[in-house]
Design brief:
Order of helices and strands: EEEEEEEEE
CATH class of the domain at 1-40 and 54-67 and 106-131: Mainly Beta
Number of helices: 0
Low-confidence stretches: none
Mean pLDDT: 92
CATH architecture of the domain at 1-40 and 54-67 and 106-131: Sandwich
Strand content: 35-45%
CATH superfamily of the domain at 1-40 and 54-67 and 106-131: SOR catalytic domain
Shape: globular
Length: about 130
């Protein structure tokens, strides 16, 4: 039997175009809104075509001492150049990037997941501390 956790891949985002990159400060101010960006293909561009694209990005926060993470955001990308005229015939294309703001009183770990329609599920994590 395959475990769900075994389906997620990870790698260094500087050399692997599928890994979600979490742009967030290492330390945030307790209780203050902090902007978080998550993108795919920051260093190595990921295709964004009808045949090969990112479907979604999801962001969680696992606060220190908690058992389960909180889902912070999920963004679905629906436009990849397809139209009634066929694949890659439209100029309407979404970019695989998500920006959100959140606040917390606890340190913890930001966890990002993404889905490529060809290469499956990818993950990354970033530890944040509180000042």
């Amino acid at each position: 039997m395959t475990d769900f956790k075994d389906l997620y891949q990870s790698a260094d985002w500087k050399s692997e175009k599928h890994v979600p990159v979490i742009d967030a400060p290492d330390t945030i101010v307790k209780g203050e809104m902090t902007k978080i960006n998550v993108t795919i293909g920051k260093e190595v561009a990921h295709p964004n075509t009808t045949a090969h694209h990112i479907d979604w990005i999801q962001l969680f926060f696992l606060a220190e001492g908690e058992k389960y993470p909180y889902e912070i955001a999920k963004t679905t990308f629906s436009a990849h150049g397809a139209s009634t005229n066929g694949p890659d015939s439209s100029t309407i294309v979404t970019h695989h990037e998500m920006s959100i703001s959140f606040k917390t009183d606890k340190p913890g770990t930001l966890l990002a997941a993404s889905s490529c329609n060809i290469h499956g599920l990818w993950q990354s994590a970033k530890q944040i501390s509180i000042q």
